[in-house]
Prior knowledge:
Elements: E1 5-6, H1 7-15, H2 17-25, H3 35-52, H4 65-68, E2 77-80, E3 84-87, E4 100-104, E5 108-112, E6 115-122, H5 133-145, E7 151-158, E8 163-170, H6 174-194
Helix pairs in contact: 1-2, 5-6
Amino acid sequence: MALAHSYSAIxxxxxxxxRYHEVRILKKxxxxxxxxxxxxxxxxKAFEEYIRDDKPLPAQFKMFEVFIAPxxxxxxxxxxxxxxxxxxxxxxxxxxxxDVWFRGVPDFLAVNKTRARVADYKTGKSARFADPDxxxxxxxxxxxxxxxxxxxSGILIFVVAQKVVLSEFYRADLPNxxxxxxxxxxxxxxxxxxxxxxxxxxxxxxxxxxxxxxxxHR
Length: 218
């Protein structure tokens, strides 16, 4: 069984293999929308329309403009919510190809000759646990799709927490990046082959969509 991976899928598996299996593979449960996720979706849509369509931000998000406005000044070909995918040999492919290995959707992507910029918007109240690995994976996929790009600048924009996290990636980094993500993906493939879907109890269990029948820790 070959699986298509993503940053969020890898994080889900590493957080709890049981939840990953029940939600993403068996599809017995679905994560429920919360006030926080609905808010995040609304913010992302507003930012996309602000950059792509030059639509003014809604009044309730106007205070975030100081963080997003600089993206409108970035030169190059700008894409919002652009779907990227690669095969297991690291070559680019379409998002829904049968042999897709990793997928990603950067909130903002700008390609200007040999340099690209990617951004991801965050609406969490804290940037304490910011994870630049997401930018790393996005950068690798961008360089796979755009062979002329030699450098990718990434930024996580925590608009509520008023923080940004910056990262830089270069084409010379690609072998190490792909080796790292191949290793993380192989852990999931190993779980598939051995049927090993152990639960990982944590304070987050109270937010888990699984029932007590599916997981004793729920």
